[in-house]
Amino acid sequence: MNEHKKEYSFTEQKVRWVKKHTPKLLSFSITRPKDFDFIAGQFAKLGFMQGDEYISRAYSMISAENTDHLDFYAILIEDGIMSGHFNQMQAGDSLLLEKKPIGFFTVSRIPQGKELVLLATGSGIAPFLSMLENETLWQKADKVVLVHSVSYVDDLVFEQYLADLKDHAIVGKYANKFIYQPVITREKIAGALNQRIPQLLENSELENALNITFTKADTRFLICGNPNMVKESYEKLKAKGFALHRVHKDGEIMMENAF
């Protein structure tokens, strides 16, 4: 075990709580080492030992950067080895956390604009939840729009959390800037859009629902979630003249491809 700890450079953390939202969706919290620093939007590698084999996967923090714990959100995949472990996990159990966070899809890299549109499917909402608690995000735009696309209404597990942000110490100051737009693709529910995000971008239905005209001068997009959605949404936006935001070249789109 000591050899594995040295080789993989992880620490052993305690599970604080586990909450099952649906049979396939859960969130959980672990203790946080004092030297584990991350930027909102980054992810951590979590794992466990199966005999002599170290199993790990990457998960974005949903908690704020300044908390003394780390919270995560996961979709349980049938026959997934990590999902199977999470499904049995309880408060008090141990979980392995690699020592350094990963990723460049961070709040600090968001390009300045007037409207910031966060596009997420499924567990792709995770980095955005962390970003929403960072004041930097709110200083990047006059309006912040979170679009979360799921299959069924029961999959919208963070609606109450988002509603409560108006009472948050930081977010409360900017609550008038925030718009939340749910998308439900397999049910028709009042207040929710009903097509996949790439189609909503292509046919301008998202713009119409938000009463915002997306422009290259003013609108910035962050995209995270299902790889097909990320790729297709980028292609739809590219066709409308938007470009990728790079280190040495400003653009309007940031994407997370690690999901």
UniProtKB/TrEMBL annotation:
<dbReference type="GO" id="GO:0004324">
    <property type="term" value="F:ferredoxin-NADP+ reductase activity"/>
</dbReference>
<dbReference type="Pfam" id="PF00175">
    <property type="entry name" value="NAD_binding_1"/>
</dbReference>
<dbReference type="InterPro" id="IPR039261">
    <property type="entry name" value="FNR_nucleotide-bd"/>
</dbReference>
<dbReference type="GO" id="GO:0042167">
    <property type="term" value="P:heme catabolic process"/>
</dbReference>
<dbReference type="GO" id="GO:0000166">
    <property type="term" value="F:nucleotide binding"/>
</dbReference>
<protein>
    <recommendedName>
        <fullName>ferredoxin--NADP(+) reductase</fullName>
        <ecNumber>1.18.1.2</ecNumber>
    </recommendedName>
</protein>
<dbReference type="InterPro" id="IPR051930">
    <property type="entry name" value="FNR_type-1"/>
</dbReference>
<keyword id="KW-0547">Nucleotide-binding</keyword>
<dbReference type="InterPro" id="IPR017927">
    <property type="entry name" value="FAD-bd_FR_type"/>
</dbReference>
<comment type="similarity">
    <text>Belongs to the ferredoxin--NADP reductase type 1 family.</text>
</comment>
<dbReference type="Pfam" id="PF00970">
    <property type="entry name" value="FAD_binding_6"/>
</dbReference>
<dbReference type="InterPro" id="IPR001709">
    <property type="entry name" value="Flavoprot_Pyr_Nucl_cyt_Rdtase"/>
</dbReference>
<dbReference type="InterPro" id="IPR033892">
    <property type="entry name" value="FNR_bac"/>
</dbReference>
<keyword id="KW-0560">Oxidoreductase</keyword>
<feature type="domain" description="FAD-binding FR-type">
    <location>
        <begin position="5"/>
        <end position="108"/>
    </location>
</feature>
<dbReference type="GO" id="GO:0034599">
    <property type="term" value="P:cellular response to oxidative stress"/>
</dbReference>
<dbReference type="InterPro" id="IPR017938">
    <property type="entry name" value="Riboflavin_synthase-like_b-brl"/>
</dbReference>
<dbReference type="InterPro" id="IPR008333">
    <property type="entry name" value="Cbr1-like_FAD-bd_dom"/>
</dbReference>
<dbReference type="InterPro" id="IPR001433">
    <property type="entry name" value="OxRdtase_FAD/NAD-bd"/>
</dbReference>
